[in-house]
Amino acid sequence: MQRAQISADRYKQFIPLSLPDRSWPDQRLSAAPRWLSTDLRDGNQSLAVPMDPERKLAMFELLVRMGYKEIEVGFPVASRDDHAFVRMLIEQERIPEDVWITVLVPAKDEAIRQSMQSLRGAPRATFHLYNATAPVFRQVVFKMSRDECKDMAVRGTHVMMKFAERTLADCDLRFQYSPEVFNETEPDFAVEVCESVMDAWEPGPGREMILNFPTTVERSQPHVFADQIEWLDRNLRRGEHVCLSIHPHNDRGTGVAATELGLLAGAERVEGCLFGNGERAGNVCLVTLGMNLLTAGIDPGIDFSDIDEVRQVAEHCTGMPVHARHPYAGDLVYTAFSGSHQDAIKKGMDALSREAGEAGVPEGDLPWRVPYLPLDPNDVGRSYEAMVRINSQSGKGGVAYVMSAHHGVDVPVADRREFADVIQSMADAEGGEITSDRIAAAFTSMYRETP
Ligand SMILES: CC(=O)SCCNC(=O)CCNC(=O)[C@H](O)C(C)(C)COP(=O)(O)OP(=O)(O)OC[C@H]1O[C@@H](n2cnc3c(N)ncnc32)[C@H](O)[C@@H]1OP(=O)(O)O
Ligand SMILES: CC(C)C(=O)C(=O)O
Protein backbone atom coordinates (compact mmCIF):
# COMPACT_ATOMS: atom_id res chain seq x y z
CA MET A 1 0.00 0.00 0.00
CA GLN A 2 1.32 3.45 -0.96
CA ARG A 3 1.63 5.75 2.05
CA ALA A 4 1.76 9.51 1.98
CA GLN A 5 5.25 10.89 2.59
CA ILE A 6 5.85 12.50 5.98
CA SER A 7 5.52 16.25 5.69
CA ALA A 8 8.66 17.94 7.05
CA ASP A 9 6.59 21.13 7.31
CA ARG A 10 5.10 19.73 10.50
CA TYR A 11 8.46 20.08 12.26
CA LYS A 12 10.53 23.14 13.00
CA GLN A 13 14.26 23.54 13.36
CA PHE A 14 15.39 24.38 16.87
CA ILE A 15 16.41 28.05 17.06
CA PRO A 16 19.79 28.21 18.82
CA LEU A 17 20.83 31.03 21.11
CA SER A 18 23.53 33.26 19.73
CA LEU A 19 26.97 32.82 21.29
CA PRO A 20 29.49 33.99 18.66
CA ASP A 21 32.33 34.25 21.23
CA ARG A 22 31.90 30.68 22.45
CA SER A 23 35.07 29.29 23.98
CA TRP A 24 34.22 25.59 24.42
CA PRO A 25 35.62 24.44 21.04
CA ASP A 26 39.13 25.31 22.28
CA GLN A 27 38.80 23.49 25.61
CA ARG A 28 40.18 20.02 26.29
CA LEU A 29 38.93 17.51 28.82
CA SER A 30 41.52 16.62 31.42
CA ALA A 31 39.52 14.97 34.20
CA ALA A 32 36.37 12.94 34.65
CA PRO A 33 33.20 14.73 35.74
CA ARG A 34 31.16 13.67 38.74
CA TRP A 35 28.82 10.91 37.64
CA LEU A 36 25.28 10.16 38.75
CA SER A 37 23.65 6.92 37.67
CA THR A 38 19.91 7.24 37.21
CA ASP A 39 19.49 3.59 36.20
CA LEU A 40 17.22 2.99 39.17
CA ARG A 41 15.03 6.02 38.40
CA ASP A 42 14.99 7.34 34.80
CA GLY A 43 16.18 3.92 33.61
CA ASN A 44 13.58 2.13 35.70
CA GLN A 45 10.60 4.41 34.99
CA SER A 46 10.99 3.72 31.26
CA LEU A 47 10.73 -0.07 31.48
CA ALA A 48 7.59 -1.98 30.52
CA VAL A 49 8.21 -4.06 33.63
CA PRO A 50 9.89 -1.87 36.26
CA MET A 51 12.57 -3.56 38.36
CA ASP A 52 11.39 -5.49 41.39
CA PRO A 53 13.36 -5.11 44.65
CA GLU A 54 15.66 -8.04 43.79
CA ARG A 55 16.65 -6.52 40.43
CA LYS A 56 16.90 -3.03 41.94
CA LEU A 57 19.33 -4.31 44.54
CA ALA A 58 21.39 -6.16 41.91
CA MET A 59 21.67 -2.93 39.92
CA PHE A 60 22.51 -0.85 43.02
CA GLU A 61 25.26 -3.27 44.04
CA LEU A 62 26.69 -3.32 40.52
CA LEU A 63 26.79 0.49 40.42
CA VAL A 64 28.53 0.58 43.81
CA ARG A 65 31.08 -2.05 42.69
CA MET A 66 31.78 -0.05 39.54
CA GLY A 67 32.54 3.02 41.63
CA TYR A 68 29.53 5.31 41.13
CA LYS A 69 29.34 7.63 44.14
CA GLU A 70 25.98 9.25 43.33
CA ILE A 71 23.06 6.96 42.58
CA GLU A 72 19.47 8.04 42.00
CA VAL A 73 17.67 5.17 43.65
CA GLY A 74 14.08 5.95 42.79
CA PHE A 75 11.02 8.13 42.64
CA PRO A 76 9.59 7.29 46.06
CA VAL A 77 6.03 8.43 45.32
CA ALA A 78 5.87 6.42 42.09
CA SER A 79 5.19 3.01 43.56
CA ARG A 80 5.28 0.83 46.63
CA ASP A 81 8.43 -0.87 45.33
CA ASP A 82 10.20 2.45 44.77
CA HIS A 83 9.43 3.63 48.30
CA ALA A 84 10.24 0.24 49.84
CA PHE A 85 13.58 0.06 48.04
CA VAL A 86 14.75 3.39 49.51
CA ARG A 87 13.66 2.23 52.95
CA MET A 88 15.44 -1.11 52.51
CA LEU A 89 18.74 0.54 51.56
CA ILE A 90 18.56 2.75 54.64
CA GLU A 91 17.24 0.24 57.17
CA GLN A 92 19.61 -2.53 56.09
CA GLU A 93 22.51 -0.03 56.06
CA ARG A 94 23.44 -0.96 52.49
CA ILE A 95 24.71 2.49 51.47
CA PRO A 96 28.52 2.69 51.58
CA GLU A 97 29.94 5.70 53.40
CA ASP A 98 31.15 7.40 50.24
CA VAL A 99 27.93 6.87 48.27
CA TRP A 100 25.12 9.43 48.08
CA ILE A 101 21.66 8.22 47.22
CA THR A 102 19.25 10.57 45.45
CA VAL A 103 15.47 10.54 45.23
CA LEU A 104 13.54 12.41 42.54
CA VAL A 105 10.51 14.40 43.63
CA PRO A 106 7.98 16.53 41.70
CA ALA A 107 7.31 19.99 43.13
CA LYS A 108 4.09 19.05 44.92
CA ASP A 109 3.64 19.37 48.69
CA GLU A 110 2.37 15.84 49.32
CA ALA A 111 5.00 14.24 47.07
CA ILE A 112 7.70 16.20 48.91
CA ARG A 113 6.37 15.10 52.30
CA GLN A 114 6.17 11.43 51.35
CA SER A 115 9.58 11.44 49.65
CA MET A 116 11.11 13.04 52.72
CA GLN A 117 9.60 10.22 54.81
CA SER A 118 11.26 7.67 52.54
CA LEU A 119 14.66 9.14 53.49
CA ARG A 120 14.18 8.90 57.27
CA GLY A 121 17.36 7.64 58.94
CA ALA A 122 19.55 8.17 55.87
CA PRO A 123 23.04 9.27 56.92
CA ARG A 124 23.42 11.34 53.71
CA ALA A 125 21.19 11.92 50.72
CA THR A 126 20.35 14.24 47.85
CA PHE A 127 16.81 15.51 47.54
CA HIS A 128 16.16 16.15 43.85
CA LEU A 129 13.24 18.46 43.09
CA TYR A 130 12.00 19.23 39.59
CA ASN A 131 9.36 21.04 37.63
CA ALA A 132 9.12 21.68 33.92
CA THR A 133 9.93 25.24 32.90
CA ALA A 134 9.59 25.23 29.08
CA PRO A 135 6.82 27.27 27.43
CA VAL A 136 4.87 24.28 26.11
CA PHE A 137 4.70 22.85 29.63
CA ARG A 138 3.72 26.17 31.19
CA GLN A 139 1.04 26.68 28.57
CA VAL A 140 -0.27 23.17 27.90
CA VAL A 141 0.52 21.05 30.96
CA PHE A 142 0.47 23.40 33.95
CA LYS A 143 -1.44 26.38 32.45
CA MET A 144 0.80 28.75 34.40
CA SER A 145 2.53 32.07 33.84
CA ARG A 146 6.31 32.34 34.13
CA ASP A 147 5.97 33.74 37.66
CA GLU A 148 3.65 30.93 38.74
CA CYS A 149 6.05 28.37 37.33
CA LYS A 150 8.96 29.95 39.20
CA ASP A 151 6.87 30.06 42.39
CA MET A 152 6.18 26.33 42.02
CA ALA A 153 9.92 25.66 42.19
CA VAL A 154 10.59 28.12 45.02
CA ARG A 155 7.61 26.93 47.05
CA GLY A 156 8.72 23.31 46.54
CA THR A 157 12.15 24.24 47.89
CA HIS A 158 10.70 25.91 50.98
CA VAL A 159 8.36 22.99 51.63
CA MET A 160 11.27 20.59 51.24
CA MET A 161 13.36 22.62 53.71
CA LYS A 162 10.54 22.67 56.23
CA PHE A 163 10.01 18.91 56.09
CA ALA A 164 13.77 18.29 56.11
CA GLU A 165 14.12 20.21 59.36
CA ARG A 166 11.53 17.95 60.95
CA THR A 167 12.38 14.63 59.33
CA LEU A 168 16.06 14.64 58.40
CA ALA A 169 17.75 16.57 61.20
CA ASP A 170 20.69 14.13 61.32
CA CYS A 171 21.06 13.67 57.59
CA ASP A 172 23.84 15.26 55.58
CA LEU A 173 21.45 16.66 52.99
CA ARG A 174 22.26 17.96 49.54
CA PHE A 175 19.68 19.67 47.42
CA GLN A 176 19.33 19.28 43.66
CA TYR A 177 17.01 21.23 41.41
CA SER A 178 16.24 20.49 37.75
CA PRO A 179 14.33 22.82 35.47
CA GLU A 180 12.85 19.97 33.46
CA VAL A 181 12.97 20.54 29.68
CA PHE A 182 15.74 23.07 30.25
CA ASN A 183 16.87 22.83 26.63
CA GLU A 184 13.55 24.25 25.43
CA THR A 185 13.25 26.84 28.21
CA GLU A 186 14.05 30.50 27.50
CA PRO A 187 17.64 30.81 28.85
CA ASP A 188 16.89 33.97 30.88
CA PHE A 189 13.92 32.23 32.51
CA ALA A 190 15.97 29.13 33.35
CA VAL A 191 18.49 31.39 35.10
CA GLU A 192 15.74 33.33 36.88
CA VAL A 193 14.15 30.15 38.26
CA CYS A 194 17.46 28.56 39.26
CA GLU A 195 18.67 31.69 41.02
CA SER A 196 15.38 32.00 42.92
CA VAL A 197 15.63 28.38 44.02
CA MET A 198 19.26 28.95 45.03
CA ASP A 199 18.26 31.99 47.07
CA ALA A 200 15.72 29.85 48.90
CA TRP A 201 18.19 27.05 49.69
CA GLU A 202 21.18 29.34 50.38
CA PRO A 203 24.03 27.05 49.38
CA GLY A 204 27.20 27.22 51.40
CA PRO A 205 29.67 24.99 53.26
CA GLY A 206 27.81 21.79 54.16
CA ARG A 207 24.83 22.93 52.08
CA GLU A 208 25.84 21.90 48.60
CA MET A 209 23.45 22.41 45.76
CA ILE A 210 23.32 20.78 42.35
CA LEU A 211 21.69 22.60 39.46
CA ASN A 212 20.93 19.99 36.85
CA PHE A 213 20.11 20.87 33.26
CA PRO A 214 18.29 18.18 31.29
CA THR A 215 17.71 17.84 27.58
CA THR A 216 14.52 16.12 28.63
CA VAL A 217 13.76 15.48 24.96
CA GLU A 218 16.86 16.03 22.84
CA ARG A 219 15.90 18.53 20.15
CA SER A 220 19.04 20.12 18.76
CA GLN A 221 22.51 19.41 17.48
CA PRO A 222 25.11 18.88 20.21
CA HIS A 223 26.95 22.16 19.65
CA VAL A 224 23.69 24.04 20.31
CA PHE A 225 23.48 22.38 23.73
CA ALA A 226 27.12 23.25 24.40
CA ASP A 227 26.35 26.91 23.66
CA GLN A 228 23.43 26.74 26.10
CA ILE A 229 25.69 25.35 28.82
CA GLU A 230 28.47 27.89 28.23
CA TRP A 231 25.87 30.68 28.27
CA LEU A 232 24.50 29.34 31.57
CA ASP A 233 27.94 29.02 33.08
CA ARG A 234 28.61 32.68 32.24
CA ASN A 235 25.24 34.05 33.31
CA LEU A 236 24.24 32.01 36.31
CA ARG A 237 25.20 33.64 39.59
CA ARG A 238 26.61 30.65 41.44
CA GLY A 239 29.40 30.13 43.92
CA GLU A 240 31.69 27.25 44.67
CA HIS A 241 28.99 25.29 46.49
CA VAL A 242 26.76 24.99 43.43
CA CYS A 243 27.57 22.25 40.96
CA LEU A 244 26.57 22.57 37.31
CA SER A 245 25.20 19.22 36.17
CA ILE A 246 23.71 17.95 32.91
CA HIS A 247 21.19 15.20 32.18
CA PRO A 248 21.19 14.49 28.45
CA HIS A 249 18.74 12.25 26.60
CA ASN A 250 19.36 10.64 23.26
CA ASP A 251 16.30 11.31 21.10
CA ARG A 252 18.41 12.48 18.16
CA GLY A 253 21.07 9.83 18.73
CA THR A 254 23.56 12.51 19.80
CA GLY A 255 23.39 12.19 23.58
CA VAL A 256 27.04 11.25 23.99
CA ALA A 257 28.20 14.05 21.69
CA ALA A 258 26.01 16.59 23.49
CA THR A 259 27.40 15.46 26.85
CA GLU A 260 31.02 15.68 25.76
CA LEU A 261 30.52 19.15 24.31
CA GLY A 262 28.55 20.13 27.42
CA LEU A 263 31.56 19.12 29.53
CA LEU A 264 33.83 21.27 27.37
CA ALA A 265 31.35 24.09 27.91
CA GLY A 266 31.57 23.95 31.71
CA ALA A 267 29.39 21.12 33.02
CA GLU A 268 30.92 19.44 36.08
CA ARG A 269 28.60 16.49 36.56
CA VAL A 270 26.74 14.09 34.28
CA GLU A 271 23.62 12.03 34.85
CA GLY A 272 22.99 8.96 32.69
CA CYS A 273 22.34 5.24 32.55
CA LEU A 274 24.35 2.14 31.73
CA PHE A 275 24.09 1.28 28.04
CA GLY A 276 21.83 4.28 27.45
CA ASN A 277 18.72 2.83 29.05
CA GLY A 278 16.05 5.43 29.86
CA GLU A 279 12.99 7.17 28.51
CA ARG A 280 12.31 6.75 24.74
CA ALA A 281 15.71 6.59 22.99
CA GLY A 282 17.34 6.56 26.39
CA ASN A 283 19.47 8.63 28.71
CA VAL A 284 23.06 9.24 27.75
CA CYS A 285 25.15 6.04 28.02
CA LEU A 286 27.47 6.12 31.03
CA VAL A 287 29.53 3.21 29.68
CA THR A 288 30.32 4.96 26.40
CA LEU A 289 31.14 8.23 28.16
CA GLY A 290 33.42 6.56 30.69
CA MET A 291 35.20 4.45 28.11
CA ASN A 292 35.60 7.43 25.78
CA LEU A 293 37.50 9.15 28.58
CA LEU A 294 39.58 6.08 29.35
CA THR A 295 40.60 5.61 25.72
CA ALA A 296 41.64 9.26 25.67
CA GLY A 297 43.99 8.57 28.58
CA ILE A 298 41.71 10.07 31.26
CA ASP A 299 40.75 7.90 34.24
CA PRO A 300 36.93 7.85 34.42
CA GLY A 301 37.05 6.74 38.06
CA ILE A 302 34.72 3.86 37.15
CA ASP A 303 35.71 0.20 36.88
CA PHE A 304 34.97 -1.23 33.42
CA SER A 305 37.46 -4.11 33.71
CA ASP A 306 34.69 -6.73 33.48
CA ILE A 307 32.43 -5.22 30.86
CA ASP A 308 30.57 -8.49 30.35
CA GLU A 309 29.56 -8.67 33.99
CA VAL A 310 28.28 -5.09 33.77
CA ARG A 311 26.34 -6.04 30.67
CA GLN A 312 24.90 -9.22 32.14
CA VAL A 313 23.64 -7.49 35.28
CA ALA A 314 22.17 -4.62 33.26
CA GLU A 315 20.46 -7.04 30.87
CA HIS A 316 19.05 -9.03 33.81
CA CYS A 317 17.78 -5.88 35.55
CA THR A 318 16.26 -4.14 32.53
CA GLY A 319 15.16 -7.23 30.62
CA MET A 320 16.70 -5.71 27.48
CA PRO A 321 19.64 -7.00 25.46
CA VAL A 322 22.65 -4.79 24.76
CA HIS A 323 23.11 -4.40 21.02
CA ALA A 324 25.95 -6.42 19.44
CA ARG A 325 27.44 -3.16 18.15
CA HIS A 326 27.03 -1.13 21.34
CA PRO A 327 30.30 0.81 21.81
CA TYR A 328 32.81 -0.99 24.05
CA ALA A 329 30.38 -3.70 25.23
CA GLY A 330 28.58 -5.27 22.29
CA ASP A 331 29.41 -8.82 21.25
CA LEU A 332 30.98 -7.72 17.97
CA VAL A 333 32.84 -4.56 18.87
CA TYR A 334 36.24 -6.22 19.16
CA THR A 335 35.74 -8.54 16.18
CA ALA A 336 36.85 -8.19 12.57
CA PHE A 337 35.52 -10.39 9.76
CA SER A 338 37.05 -8.45 6.90
CA GLY A 339 40.41 -9.45 5.52
CA SER A 340 42.30 -6.16 5.47
CA HIS A 341 41.19 -5.36 9.04
CA GLN A 342 42.31 -8.81 10.17
CA ASP A 343 45.65 -8.48 8.44
CA ALA A 344 46.32 -5.15 10.18
CA ILE A 345 45.21 -6.54 13.54
CA LYS A 346 47.52 -9.54 13.15
CA LYS A 347 50.46 -7.30 12.25
CA GLY A 348 49.63 -4.99 15.19
CA MET A 349 49.41 -7.89 17.65
CA ASP A 350 52.66 -9.41 16.34
CA ALA A 351 54.40 -6.05 16.73
CA LEU A 352 53.07 -5.65 20.27
CA SER A 353 54.31 -9.06 21.29
CA ARG A 354 57.72 -8.46 19.66
CA GLU A 355 58.11 -5.09 21.42
CA ALA A 356 57.07 -6.60 24.76
CA GLY A 357 59.62 -9.41 24.31
CA GLU A 358 62.38 -6.93 23.48
CA ALA A 359 61.52 -4.72 26.44
CA GLY A 360 61.07 -7.69 28.77
CA VAL A 361 57.65 -6.46 29.98
CA PRO A 362 54.12 -7.87 29.70
CA GLU A 363 52.21 -6.74 26.61
CA GLY A 364 49.66 -5.04 28.85
CA ASP A 365 52.36 -2.59 30.01
CA LEU A 366 52.91 -1.17 26.52
CA PRO A 367 50.86 1.58 24.89
CA TRP A 368 48.06 0.10 22.77
CA ARG A 369 48.79 0.60 19.06
CA VAL A 370 46.84 -2.08 17.21
CA PRO A 371 45.04 -0.90 14.08
CA TYR A 372 41.24 -1.13 13.93
CA LEU A 373 40.85 -1.75 17.66
CA PRO A 374 40.19 1.32 19.81
CA LEU A 375 41.43 -0.47 22.93
CA ASP A 376 42.89 -3.71 24.19
CA PRO A 377 39.96 -6.14 24.62
CA ASN A 378 41.87 -7.64 27.56
CA ASP A 379 41.48 -4.37 29.45
CA VAL A 380 37.71 -4.90 29.60
CA GLY A 381 37.96 -8.61 30.33
CA ARG A 382 37.53 -9.86 26.76
CA SER A 383 39.91 -12.47 25.33
CA TYR A 384 41.76 -12.07 22.05
CA GLU A 385 40.03 -15.12 20.59
CA ALA A 386 37.01 -13.36 19.10
CA MET A 387 39.06 -10.53 17.59
CA VAL A 388 39.31 -12.32 14.27
CA ARG A 389 36.49 -14.47 12.89
CA ILE A 390 36.45 -15.99 9.45
CA ASN A 391 33.83 -15.77 6.71
CA SER A 392 33.77 -14.95 3.00
CA GLN A 393 35.05 -11.42 3.69
CA SER A 394 38.27 -12.68 5.30
CA GLY A 395 41.77 -13.14 3.87
CA LYS A 396 45.06 -14.95 4.45
CA GLY A 397 46.13 -12.70 7.34
CA GLY A 398 42.96 -13.54 9.28
CA VAL A 399 43.19 -17.28 8.63
CA ALA A 400 46.85 -17.27 9.72
CA TYR A 401 45.86 -15.32 12.86
CA VAL A 402 43.23 -17.91 13.83
CA MET A 403 45.70 -20.77 13.34
CA SER A 404 48.27 -18.98 15.45
CA ALA A 405 46.04 -17.57 18.22
CA HIS A 406 43.70 -20.56 18.62
CA HIS A 407 45.92 -23.48 17.65
CA GLY A 408 49.50 -22.31 18.16
CA VAL A 409 50.40 -22.99 14.52
CA ASP A 410 52.39 -20.44 12.58
CA VAL A 411 51.24 -21.16 9.00
CA PRO A 412 54.34 -20.83 6.79
CA VAL A 413 54.21 -17.64 4.72
CA ALA A 414 54.60 -19.69 1.52
CA ASP A 415 51.42 -21.72 2.32
CA ARG A 416 49.19 -18.87 3.47
CA ARG A 417 47.72 -17.98 0.07
CA GLU A 418 46.89 -21.59 -0.81
CA PHE A 419 45.43 -22.35 2.61
CA ALA A 420 43.35 -19.15 2.70
CA ASP A 421 41.95 -19.93 -0.77
CA VAL A 422 40.63 -23.27 0.50
CA ILE A 423 38.98 -21.60 3.49
CA GLN A 424 37.59 -18.92 1.16
CA SER A 425 36.01 -21.61 -1.06
CA MET A 426 34.36 -23.17 2.00
CA ALA A 427 33.01 -19.78 3.07
CA ASP A 428 31.77 -18.95 -0.44
CA ALA A 429 30.05 -22.32 -0.73
CA GLU A 430 28.39 -22.19 2.69
CA GLY A 431 27.81 -18.47 3.10
CA GLY A 432 28.40 -18.41 6.87
CA GLU A 433 31.20 -18.29 9.38
CA ILE A 434 33.94 -20.97 9.34
CA THR A 435 34.77 -21.91 12.90
CA SER A 436 38.29 -22.11 14.20
CA ASP A 437 37.98 -25.90 14.66
CA ARG A 438 36.98 -26.38 11.01
CA ILE A 439 39.89 -24.21 9.90
CA ALA A 440 42.23 -26.42 11.97
CA ALA A 441 40.68 -29.58 10.47
CA ALA A 442 41.21 -28.22 6.95
CA PHE A 443 44.81 -27.42 7.85
CA THR A 444 45.41 -30.97 9.09
CA SER A 445 43.90 -32.57 6.01
CA MET A 446 45.91 -30.31 3.65
CA TYR A 447 49.26 -30.44 5.36
CA ARG A 448 48.90 -33.64 7.43
CA GLU A 449 50.05 -31.68 10.45
CA THR A 450 47.92 -31.79 13.59
CA PRO A 451 47.75 -28.44 15.36
C1 LIG B 1 11.44 13.88 32.71
C2 LIG B 1 11.21 12.93 33.81
O1 LIG B 1 11.63 11.85 33.70
S1 LIG B 1 10.37 13.47 35.15
C3 LIG B 1 10.04 12.04 36.09
C4 LIG B 1 8.88 11.30 35.53
N1 LIG B 1 8.69 10.10 36.29
C5 LIG B 1 7.49 9.62 36.55
O2 LIG B 1 6.48 10.20 36.19
C6 LIG B 1 7.44 8.32 37.26
C7 LIG B 1 6.71 8.39 38.54
N2 LIG B 1 5.43 9.09 38.47
C8 LIG B 1 4.31 8.63 39.02
O3 LIG B 1 4.33 7.58 39.63
C9 LIG B 1 3.09 9.46 38.93
O4 LIG B 1 3.05 10.16 37.69
C10 LIG B 1 3.00 10.45 40.12
C11 LIG B 1 2.88 9.64 41.42
C12 LIG B 1 4.18 11.37 40.23
C13 LIG B 1 1.79 11.37 39.96
O5 LIG B 1 0.68 10.55 39.73
P1 LIG B 1 -0.80 11.15 39.49
O6 LIG B 1 -1.18 12.01 40.63
O7 LIG B 1 -1.64 9.98 39.17
O8 LIG B 1 -0.69 12.15 38.24
P2 LIG B 1 -0.20 11.90 36.78
O9 LIG B 1 0.68 10.69 36.68
O10 LIG B 1 -1.35 11.95 35.85
O11 LIG B 1 0.76 13.17 36.56
C14 LIG B 1 0.27 14.38 36.08
C15 LIG B 1 0.12 15.43 37.17
O12 LIG B 1 1.40 15.78 37.72
C16 LIG B 1 1.63 17.18 37.51
N3 LIG B 1 3.08 17.37 37.39
C17 LIG B 1 3.87 16.88 36.44
N4 LIG B 1 5.12 17.24 36.68
C18 LIG B 1 5.14 17.94 37.82
C19 LIG B 1 6.13 18.57 38.58
N5 LIG B 1 7.40 18.51 38.26
N6 LIG B 1 5.78 19.22 39.69
C20 LIG B 1 4.49 19.26 40.04
N7 LIG B 1 3.50 18.68 39.38
C21 LIG B 1 3.83 18.04 38.27
C22 LIG B 1 0.83 17.48 36.27
O13 LIG B 1 0.56 18.82 36.11
C23 LIG B 1 -0.44 16.67 36.54
O14 LIG B 1 -1.20 17.36 37.49
P3 LIG B 1 -2.83 17.43 37.38
O15 LIG B 1 -3.28 16.05 37.67
O16 LIG B 1 -3.18 18.40 38.43
O17 LIG B 1 -3.13 17.87 35.97
C1 LIG C 1 13.74 15.28 36.10
C2 LIG C 1 14.73 15.45 35.04
C3 LIG C 1 16.12 15.54 35.55
C4 LIG C 1 14.63 14.40 34.00
O1 LIG C 1 14.66 13.24 34.26
C5 LIG C 1 14.57 14.86 32.62
O2 LIG C 1 14.27 16.01 32.39
O3 LIG C 1 14.79 14.03 31.72
Automatic annotation (TrEMBL):
List UniProt keywords, sorted A-Z: Transferase
Q: What would be one Pfam family of this protein?
A: HMGL-like
Q: Which Enzyme Commission numbers does its entry carry? A: 2.3.3.13
> Where do the Pyruvate carboxyltransferase domain residues begin and end?
33-308
Q: SUPFAM superfamilies, from UniProt? A: Aldolase, post-HMGL domain-like
Question: Superkingdom of this entry's organism?
Answer: Bacteria
UniProt-listed PROSITE patterns: AIPM_HOMOCIT_SYNTH_1 (PS00815), AIPM_HOMOCIT_SYNTH_2 (PS00816), PYR_CT (PS50991)
Q: Name one GO molecular function term.
A: 2-isopropylmalate synthase activity
Recorded catalytic reaction(s): these are: 3-methyl-2-oxobutanoate + acetyl-CoA + H2O = (2S)-2-isopropylmalate + CoA + H(+)
GO biological process: any one? carboxylic acid metabolic process
Q: Record's NCBIfam families?
A: PRK03739.1 (NF002991)
Could you say which protein family the record assigns here? Belongs to the alpha-IPM synthase/homocitrate synthase family. LeuA type 2 subfamily.
Q: What is this protein called?
A: 2-isopropylmalate synthase
Which source organism does the UniProt entry give?
Planobispora takensis
Q: Gene encoding it? A: leuA_3
